[in-house]
Amino acid sequence: MRLTFIFLSLYIASAVMAQGQNRLWYDEPAQEWEEALPIGNGRMGAMIFGGDTLEEVQFNEETLWTGEPRNYNRKGAYRYLDTIRLLLEQGKQREAEELAMNEFMGLQSETEDNGPWLARVAAERKKEDGAYTYHFDDADWGKIPVPSYEGWEEVGLEGVDGAAWFRTTFELTAEDLKSDWELDLNRVRQYDYTYVNGQLVGHEQGDGTKRLYTVPKEILREGTNVIAVQVINLVGKGGISGYKDTSIPIGFKNAAGKFISIVGEWKYWIQDSEVPKVGTFQASYQPFGRLKFRFPAGDTQEYERSLDLETGLAEVQYKRAGVQFSRVYFASYPDNMIGIRLTADKPGQISFGLAMETKHEKHQIWKVDEQTLAMTVDVKGGALEGTSFLTVKLDGGTITEQDGQLQVRDAHSADIYLTGATNYGDYKTLVPDYIAPAQAHHQKVKKKTFSKLLKNHQQDYRQLFSRFSIDLGGEAQRDIPTDERLHRFESAADPDLVALYMQFGRYLQIASAREGTHPANLQGVWNPWLEPSWGSKYTTNINLEMNYWPTEILNLPELHHSLFQMIRELSEAGRETAREYYHARGWVLHHNTDVWRGTAPINNSNHGIWPTGGAWLLTHLWEHYLFNQDPKIIAEYYDVIKGATLFFKDVLVKDEQTGWLVSTPSNSPEYGGLVKGPTMDHQIIRALFGVFSESAKLLGKDTALRDSIQTMLPQIAPNQIGQYGQLQEWMEDLDDPDNKHRHVSHLWGLHPGNEINADDTPELVEAAKQSLRMRGDDGTGWSLAWKINFWARLKDAQHTYTMIKMLLRPASKAGGSYPNLFDAHPPFQIDGNFGGAAGIGEMLLQSHTTFVDVLPALPRELPQGEVRGLKARGGFEIDLKWFDNHLQQISVKSNAGKPLKLRYEGKVVEIPTKKNKTYTFDTTLNLLK
Ligand code: FUC
Fold first, then answer.
1. Coil, strand or helix: which one is 431?
2. What Å distances lie between residue 732 and 729, 736, 746, CA to CA?
3. What domains can you pick out in the chain, each with its CATH number?
4. What pTM did the predictor assign?
5. What is the pLDDT of residue 728?
6. What is the 8-class DSSP label of residue 911?
7. If you measure from the C-alpha of residue 546 to the centroid of ligand 1, how many angstroms do you get, rounded to a whole number?
8. Can you list the residues of the chain whose pLDDT is less than 50?
9. How far apart are CA 717 and CA 652, in angstroms?
10. Which residue ranges have their beta carbon within 6 Å of ligand 1?
């Protein structure tokens, strides 16, 4: 036993010493979720807080969502298609949107009649001594901060929907009673009944309506006044929201300009949280649970927590009373488990209590055996449940179970095994008995030694991660904690942080989705909220695609398959949507999807009716082919590509005014409402038609269809340059130079598309640049990331770097990065991490035209560097070195034997290549060997 103990400690120590440049580290435990460190295996994700006395490991399993398999499509919606088109044609956008809102949106999940429930909660308003009255005794109510713009969920009422009361007081003088007052609550989610001194002063429904109520002087009192608000929240975020700009207070004002703020701690009482079901368009990704460790308190020294991107291990180290404690955490893909090992450098030092917890109201925790707990969670109002197993194996010491918690005493080391599964089968089915296989899986994992699991994980992880390396110099900064580096980056040079950010993107890519898993959702695989923003689902008008921008260029091609599998499922689900909404062949996906593969329009007709989601996704298949040159992928997905093509062949209509083929109705995400012919659609459809034509040629299929698509291609509405020299967002020249919207959809053809490029369309490049200047640099996290890619494609190195700096700013309302380097929309959204990593790649290498462009947008701030394993279209794998802002050497390995056209600072070399041969060139592209 002693021997194993020594071996374990040595193992951990060497793991620590082996850490190189690719490391996030901190000298304090995480307080906030966005400071915790993510681990994941594509199926399970966990956030490590790293507490020394109280440790939390919040975890997820990718298939735990709200909702159930159901029909998302409104039958016969196509009957309204022509009228919607006609209304748009006649310039009646509002009418078109209204009709579409009523007849053309997807089906929501079941909505129960809420009449009886509303009547029940209304009773309190009718009671003589109800919660609204002046003298009501709220002494035993809870306390809560008001307002809370992001919902009462953020201030303690997570998971609560229903009727709740809020009360507070304010003081008035005799002078104040001379005039009426106005009460401004701004936003309330969703109904309010607002009382002052027991009198109803206002009632509104809906999140959007501003609450501005007159309070007549007759009901006011000198001294203490009481405001009481009944808030009824049937779904989603709840509470008195106030203003988005939280510096604007809610409160009372009078004509004399006096303002009394009522921001602060109020009393609250949840009257009834058994709300009837409210339909939603799509489902939300759910948290699963958390492990809570309680260690004996003590004085901590030399604390450090870290995430090593090279090994895929999170670690915590600290000293207490001369004992060195170490923890290692990882998520293994081959064994589908999360492993945690706790060790100390002296025997018998490991003692802790361990509990499983969850935010799901309906859950059960039970003891499986002396060392194993299980937890089943049931998603409220949905069909899914999940079960997770937790085993602790000790070296030395004792373990007992007490009140659903495990107690470990005096062990030399403890190994923790966490697994989890749900009853999700696929997007159409549930698995009736999932617990038995889940338990069998846990048993199997439990039998393996921790070292074996760790080894499997490391082997698996490293073969992906180690294919690519980047060194931009500036390694001295590595001694500074990562959160501190982020702060300094605003004003000080830290090229190594740029390299770290890129590798962190690759790490997240490996951790959030793998072969056979679902793709990375808006938050990858990490989510602690029951009501995550945008459901933590899949938005396809930029976000999901951005998640896969680094996949090829940063050398992780097999990870693209998680997306491809989803595309196949969407193509099946989207057939009915094509038929019912457009009377068309093939398949369609609109701007969002979820775990049940919804494809119909959702949310609102002003942005939900956007038919090019599937077409955009398909370009990823083609990119995969271009980078890897293996036609297998095209053969495998040809039917899916053809299906999307047939859809647009059927739905493009000839515009009477211009004679062009246009996409209508649609939207330029997510601006300008429902329109005919947004530029982005036409760019995407041209790309899709190109992909289809090339695919059909490659496979020698469908010559006639190919010919007809070729005939249609030049008829599709072209890119146009408008009055400001800008690329037009729409068919009409309507762009507003002051519009700073986060989406820059009409530049799709510049990136990720390629029809706008300096070689072929220099005037459009200038127009795109002008559009981008008009839009400005600011934006949400993903918007900043997209602009890195845009400016790189525009070959403006310094502007590219400006955007990198903006993305790598400490998170604020203006986007940026959290201390754990997660991208801030805000809130956390993973797309920016991926878009940012890809954009740094675009700065170093581009291959979207016939050239492979070397260092096309290298900023002054990154004068030297060495990169290994970048990928270029044509099946090339590239190593390059530069110094003093000049290329030193470049080696190109040809994986497919295709001709190579390399370009650097205007010089071009063109050579045929042999498969698997490497070609090395000097500073001016002379072939060395
Ligand atoms: C789109 C964007 C939002 C957000 C959401 C998930 O709707 O416009 O900014 O990223 O997706």
1. coil
2. 8, 12, 13
3. 2-67+305-466 (2.70.98.50), 115-272 (2.60.120.260)
4. 0.93
5. 98
6. E
7. 12
8. 1-19
9. 10
10. 522, 534, 539, 543, 670, 742-743, 780, 782, 825, 829
